[in-house]
Design a protein that fits this description.
Layout lengths: L9 H6 L9 E2 H11 L6 E5 L12 E2 L9 E2 L3 E4 L10 E9 L13 E5 L11 E4 L10 E4 L10 E2 L10 E3 L7 H9 L4 E5 L3 E7 L3 E2 L10 E2 L2 H11 L3 E8 L3 H14 L2 E5 L10 H8 E11 L3 E9 L2 E8 L3 H19 L10 E5 L10 E10 L5 E5 L9 H5 L2 E5 L11 E6 L5
Parallel strand pairs: 1-18, 6-7, 13-16, 13-17, 14-15, 17-20, 18-22, 21-23
Antiparallel strand pairs: 2-12, 3-11, 4-10, 5-7, 5-8, 6-9, 18-19, 19-20, 21-25, 22-23, 22-24, 24-25
Helix pairs in contact: 2-7, 4-7, 5-6
The structure holds adenosine monophosphate and magnesium ion.
Length: 432
């Protein structure tokens, strides 16, 4: 399942950059190169709207109807002619009938008359205002009294098309559909929508020391945790995932795994084996199979990373060779792979907002690299957003990530932060 051909080789992309040094790549430059090199897939399928949650809309959706279809009441009360209202005295109107949601009042309403109306009912012809039930006085079946000053002309009336107007774009191509969008599509009477096919992403872990769950943990070995965090992160992103397991640090197994990924998926994400470590064959294999750059990125955690495209049997997949340390995997995934995968999916998503928070502790930070510390954000009694760091920040300490609810982003040029100073944070989870 090859992706569409990239417009240029990695060499072409980096040759446009005057200050490119693979051994010292600032975060922003790595993000820029990745973005230049990646092309979106374009393969569309139609799905029922319930299945469209989290999928990327493949075309604009133009409203075929007005929502609401008619002017209607926003309240239970009485529909009246605004010209009957008097600014300084109560008026009494004759009740002509009742308008229900789904059953309109068909008669005429003359001056001095009104119609009992329910929320959502179509406004009777010549009525433009609704007085809520609770403001009325002396109501019987024949007439109702409306005190002065409770409503003015046009109050409590919803306009035809005020939510979605016929012929206007209701949802834009590239939108990743959320619960409100499913409801919005339903309100338009749309049962199916064209979405981009799911991105197919393979991942595997490399390292002779790794054991899979269920295996005994031999001396000096660790359980493979990266495959599980990657499983979670890719699933949340809506990818179709292919878990290729643990691949030993041996050239034959690695080459076979890369070939299979290139032939069957859009992207492959590996962890481990991209550092300078002598036993790591991954680098060598990656280089043999395609157009791959090896970077030392000006960041912490996560310095080593490989990026490019691997080929086999005329097919190709983008490659993200992430570092092995568990926190570094997550940080490099979120700050490099996530955006790239979203771009490949055709998703048009605004940058996640960094928000300023007060750092509760002083933080050591060396200018010249971007640091991603794991934090717990909270709101102080005085209403200020504040952040504490989650203990030890070692790149192997996954607990720091598990306990966190945000990332503290210490920018490239930033230095030490005093306790009480402002830092930028990126919250992990929102409501939607
Ligand atoms: P590497 O990048 O291969 O040199 O690995 C760096 C560190 O991360 C080593 O301590 C590895 O044991 C550890 N590591 C690598 N891959 C994994 C994994 N899949 N799960 C847990 N730890 C890992
Ligand atoms: Mg390794």
């Amino acid at each position: 399942m090859a992706s569409t051909t990239a417009p240029a080789s990695l060499h072409d992309v980096v040759s446009c950059l005057s200050d490119y040094d693979p051994n010292a790549v600032p975060v922003a430059q790595a993000q820029h190169i990745i973005r230049q090199f990646i092309t979106p897939i374009s393969s569309i399928e139609k799905v029922a709207i319930r299945q469209a949650l989290g999928r990327v809309l493949a075309t604009d959706i133009v409203s075929g109807i007005n929502v609401p279809a008619h002017d209607n009441s926003a309240m239970d009360g009485y529909a009246l002619r605004g010209s009957d209202l008097s600014p300084d005295q109560a008026i009494t109107l004759k009740i002509k009938g009742t308008a229900y949601a789904g059953r309109a009042f068909e008669g005429e309403v003359h001056p001095g008359e009104c119609v009992r109306i329910m929320t959502g009912a179509v406004m009777p012809v010549s009525c433009d205002t609704v007085i809520p039930q609770e403001f009325t006085l002396n109501t019987d079946t024949e007439q109702v009294t409306i005190p002065a000053g409770k409503v003015k002309t046009g109050d409590n009336r919803r306009f035809k098309g005020e939510d979605l107007a016929i012929g206007k774009t209701a949802l834009t191509k590239g939108k990743m559909l959320r619960p409100a969008d499913l409801g919005l599509l339903a309100s338009l009477g749309v049962a199916e929508v064209p979405v981009q096919r799911r991105l197919r992403v393979a991942f595997f872990s490399t390292g002779d020391e790794l054991r899979s769950l269920g295996e005994t943990l031999d001396e000096g070995c660790v359980y493979d945790s990266n495959r599980y965090t990657l499983h979670g992160m890719l699933t949340r992103l809506g990818c179709d995932i292919v878990d290729m397991g643990v691949i030993k640090d041996d050239p034959v197994s690695l080459a076979a795994a890369f070939r299979s990924a290139a032939e069957n998926t859009d992207a492959v994400i590996t962890s481990g084996g991209v550092s300078v470590g002598a036993a790591d064959y991954t680098k060598q294999m990656m280089a043999q199979l395609g157009d791959v750059a090896f970077w030392t990125i000006g960041m912490r955690p996560g310095r080593p990373m490989a990026f490019g495209k691997i080929q086999s049997a005329g097919k190709s997949a983008y490659l993200f060779g992430l570092p092995g340390n568990p926190v570094a995997v997550m940080v490099t995934f979120y700050f490099f792979a996530r955006n790239a995968l979203l771009h490949m999916m055709g998703a048009n998503i605004p940058e996640l907002p960094l928000v300023p928070a007060v750092s509760l502790a002083s933080l050591r930070k060396r200018p010249g690299r971007t640091e991603y510390q794991r934090g717990i954000a909270s709101v102080s009694p005085s209403g200020q957003l504040q952040v504490a760091i989650t203990g030890s920040q070692g790149s192997g300490i996954l607990r720091s990530m598990s306990e966190a609810n945000c990332m503290v982003v210490l920018h490239h040029d930033q230095g030490n932060v005093d306790a009480g100073g402002k830092v930028d944070i990126l919250l992990f989870e929102g409501l939607l």
